[in-house]
Structure to design on (268 residues):
């Protein structure tokens, strides 16, 4: 019997004892050795959440091998390592069944080759998804609380550098580019000409990319430039220095609204 070992940690898990990739690998390979399973391969996804399966490269490679019937079981440390989505769980399990591949959880003691194991998997899958959704709610609440206290809710803003965990400080070189973009947008009242102008002047985004109409639109509509953080449609005043005057920002928003209403053409 051949076993594919699947291990995964999210960024949060890496700091928690017992969740590390090395700990999972050791436990699962020992499990195979004591039961006489041949380890076909160890598939590892590091720093990736269990929200869904499709964005995990190692998991996708493992499932492709499973659908080619290259091994007999998928061995996991716990169902939460495999997925926290009930939809993903049942969709994947349906496909695995067609290729006679079972899923075995080392720590939870279920084996989907048996009716009881399949029932346990279903129950655990529901609770895994519930835990993911509760965690998302807690994170959302924490971010909303930070925003209400004027603390930073963004991590990458052209024109600013991070100032500790809670605030921003002006990056003067980038700030000049942002001010130029607002000035030219108010002058030309269109996104694309502004992108062409700043690109021709040799300016670029934080990651070195050229500006386009969409990136100009994103910049001129961000309230962060007048001193406000945004979170889920609400604005919260931050404790940092604005780059743009409120008068210019509101002028820019009126132009954005005209473009949105079709009074001016927004192409590309």
């Amino acid at each position: 019997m051949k076993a594919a070992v699947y291990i995964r940690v999210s960024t949060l898990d890496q700091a928690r004892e017992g969740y590390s990739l090395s700990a999972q690998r050791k436990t699962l390979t020992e499990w195979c050795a004591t039961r006489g399973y041949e380890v076909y391969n160890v598939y590892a996804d590091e720093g990736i959440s269990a929200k869904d399966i499709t964005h995990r490269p190692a998991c996708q490679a493992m499932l492709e091998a499973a659908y080619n019937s290259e091994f007999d079981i998928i061995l996991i440390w716990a169902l939460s390592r495999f997925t926290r989505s009930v939809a993903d769980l049942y969709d994947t399990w349906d496909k695995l069944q067609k290729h006679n591949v079972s899923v075995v959880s080392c720590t939870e003691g279920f084996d989907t080759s048996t009716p009881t194991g399949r029932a346990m998997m279903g129950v655990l899958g529901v609770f895994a998804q519930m835990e993911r959704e509760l965690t998302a709610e807690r994170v959302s609440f924490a971010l909303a609380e930070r925003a209400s206290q004027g603390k930073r809710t963004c991590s990458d803003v052209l024109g600013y550098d991070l100032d500790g965990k809670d605030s921003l400080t002006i990056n003067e070189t980038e700030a000049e580019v942002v001010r130029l973009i607002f000035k030219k947008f108010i002058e030309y009242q269109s996104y694309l000409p502004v992108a062409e102008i700043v690109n021709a002047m040799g300016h670029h985004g934080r990651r070195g990319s050229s500006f386009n109409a969409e990136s100009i639109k994103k910049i001129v509509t961000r309230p962060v430039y007048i001193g406000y953080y945004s979170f889920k449609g609400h604005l919260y005043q931050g404790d940092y220095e604005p780059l743009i005057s409120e008068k210019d920002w509101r002028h820019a928003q009126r132009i954005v609204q005209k473009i949105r209403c079709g009074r001016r053409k927004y192409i590309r």
